[in-house]
Specification:
- With 242 residues, the protein is α+β, with helices and mostly antiparallel strands.
- The chain is elongated and about 65 Å long.
- The relative contact order is 0.18.
- Helices cover 37% and strands 22% of the residues.
């Protein structure tokens, strides 16, 4: 090794050490993540998020003829989001906790009467999605859903209509399609592998969409999209390490 190379070596090693220490502190380790995800503040937000979901689930049963069948709930906390092809910036949040759920109901009165009950109960805000067809956003509205039932899923020329839903900003109502069994609601996906900061439950355990359909004939679902209820910023995490 020549003299210049020997002089450069300590600098390279120092830079390597700095980079390594920066990488090691880029995200909380598993123990830190678990500690932050199970803090008292996180638990309060988690309880509130679940309570809001369960309250809406109960409202659908209390204000319509829908019979509650089972609830699938997923609650997960993870580290910072990885950069992707279009966004290479570092995630300013190091802990993300989110929850989503799907409630399943039996519909003993059938689809059209149940849809009308949901409309009268004002259980959701369908907003402007009440046009007469897919081109005007009607797939997500009550008016289109009822038109779909009256038309038995077909246009005047016999072509299939788009399957309707009721789309509220916070949740989506869907149901079995009597005009196309391929459009029936499917079983929820299997729970992912267990982890210290992952909760996935079916309540009551063992309940299935197939079982609900066998009992009531028609299945409705209310899906609550993934909602982030607790985060820890990179700054707060780094300040806590000092």
């Amino acid at each position: 090794m020549n003299r210049s190379a020997r002089r450069a070596l300590p600098v390279v090693l120092a830079l390597t050490g700095l980079l390594a220490s920066g990488c090691s502190a880029a995200a909380p380790d598993d123990d830190e993540l678990h500690r932050m995800a199970t803090s008292a503040a996180a638990d309060r937000q988690r309880t509130g998020a679940e309570h809001a979901i369960r309250k809406k689930v109960a409202a659908f049963a209390a204000r319509t003829s829908l019979e509650p069948a089972f609830l699938r709930l997923n609650d997960n906390c993870g580290g910072p989001r990885s950069p992707d092809l279009f966004d290479q910036t570092e995630d300013p949040v190091v802990v993300h906790c989110s929850m989503y759920a799907i409630a399943y109901y039996g519909a003993p009165r059938g689809i059209t009467p149940t849809l009308k009950e949901i409309g009268r109960a004002h259980l959701g805000d369908w907003g402007g999605l009440t046009g007469g067809g897919p081109d005007t956003g009607g797939v997500g509205g009550l008016r289109y859903a009822l038109e779909y039932q009256r038309a038995k899923g077909r246009q005047a020329d016999g072509l299939r209509l788009s399957t309707p839903q009721l789309n509220d900003p916070a949740f989506t109502v869907a149901w079995d399609d009597p005009w196309d069994p391929q459009g029936n609601l499917r079983e929820p996906l299997a729970c992912p592998p267990r982890g210290p900061d992952l909760r996935c439950l079916t309540e009551p355990a063992g309940a299935t969409v197939t079982g609900v359909r066998a009992r009531y004939g028609t299945v409705f679902s209310v899906g609550f999209g993934r909602r982030e209820y607790w985060t820890v910023s990179r700054k707060d995490w780094q300040d806590g390490r000092k």
